[in-house]
Automatic annotation (TrEMBL), chains A, B:
Gene3D superfamilies: 2.30.31.70. It comes from Latilactobacillus curvatus JCM 1096 = DSM 20019. GO terms for molecular function: DNA binding. GO terms for biological process: regulation of DNA-templated transcription. InterPro entries: PC4-like, PC4_C. Residues 20-65 form the Transcriptional coactivator p15 (PC4) C-terminal domain. This is Transcriptional coactivator p15 (PC4) C-terminal domain-containing protein. Transmembrane segments: none annotated. It comes from the Bacteria. It holds the Pfam family PC4. Coiled coil: none annotated.
């Protein structure tokens, strides 16, 4: 497989940080110079390494927000 | 590696569905009979296969909700 190019276009928020400094972050990332997508993923300090994660479209982010707010009211 | 056992304890919400029927879902899943964690992941129809995803603690879910609601007001 070829190299995956990515650029972190915006750092939106940090969900957590573990004792080793890895953080679970929500970012806007452009993969292979395509339009940026939301990305929820673990990162080593200074984004030196990426862990596993999922990408999310605008619609998926909006659905997730509704689901989380609905949960809170139950 | 051994087999990973899991049980979907609660189906919380569906973020999207693609033309092949795979859905991006937020569930509460118990892995290897441990306490359930939130899990954001792609699933084939009827949960026949799982795709990539991330697990989230209660605190990470609460942080994510705050981050998404803060985004909305910008």
């Amino acid at each position: 497989m070829g190299k995956i190019e990515y650029e972190i276009m915006a750092e939106i928020g940090v969900l957590s940080e573990n004792p080793a400094g890895w953080r679970k972050e929500l970012n806007l990332i452009s993969w292979n110079q395509r339009a940026p997508k939301f990305d929820l993923r673990d990162w080593a300090p200074d984004h030196a390494k990426m862990g596993k994660g999922v990408t999310l479209s605008n619609d998926e982010i909006a659905s997730l927000r509704l689901i989380l707010n609905e949960m809170e009211t139950k």
